[in-house]
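Quick start: read one record
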Amino acid sequence: MDPKTNQILYEKNAHEKRPMASTTKMMTGIITLERANLNEEITISSEAAIVGESELHLQTGEKMSVKNLLYGLLVESANDAAVALANHVGGSVQGFVDIMNRKAQNIGAKNTHFANPHGLYNTNHYSTAYDLAFIAKYCIEDKTFAKVVGTKEYTISRPQKNLLSKIKNHNKLLWQYPYANGIKTGYVKQAGYCLVSSANKNGIELIAVVLNSPSSDACCNDSKNLLEYGFNEFKREKMIEKGKAYKKVKLPEVLDRDLQLVAASDLVLQVRKNPYDVKRVVTAKDELEPPINKGEKLGKIEVIESGKSLGEVDLIAEKTLPKPGRLEFVYLWLKYIFKKIVGFFNKN
């Protein structure tokens, strides 16, 4: 997916509901960033300390900053960090999960439902590749989130235990693919290997989602191949330019003037590099009558590639044309008749 244009460049079973494992933690992380200060200190509860699986091995009563827990969540994929943050931000795990589900709906992830903040298997915990792409887009718009998920290694200071916890990002793409800059891995038996990845090549950002892969290496390779497909087969181009005239509309002949319809906004799209089968189709009346106000919507221009609509923009009036007053109308008629008479005699 191109997060700038929201276009899906390739999809397979994109809307199939599946368990998504620790890719869940994208939502946990972004809600934490929106609702907590990085410098806030959290006292680890027994609930967080015993959650198990991938963890920082937090101990009950240990104190840790939101910032360190966030890195533990998104780099180490720590489940204990997820529960600690959920308790702190939501008041309880269930309170936090309620926030997660409201946020998913607001983002547009309509086929997503969270049952926990970490992604351990639950029959009521699922998403789709399509939804995860849009959740990822929302998340990486936050600069702090983007920085954390692009971090390869991080050291967490734990003075109460008199040690430093060195963590390493589970996302192999950060080491294997030079353009990779995120985002989140996941694995539980029921979900298979999962990866929501992002990469930036020559200023173009793309997001890929792979779910239920048979192995970590296969998941990483498929993600890389998807991203390369997007970079190699498509190009981002300004297909419609704001303020540019795309149609000339006739006015009653007596007025002796035309009106330009201009694009109301830019439209930037991903289009295939080859073959280049893109058309711009204008829908608007061929003739209009005043009064017409500047900026009035009078049609649309649509970009179509191989028979598929990629997007459209309103066409609006370039300027205001008021309806002529009675005296002006008489003058225009006389001028029009005179012009016709002169034209007749010149012709003959």
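The mean pLDDT is 92.
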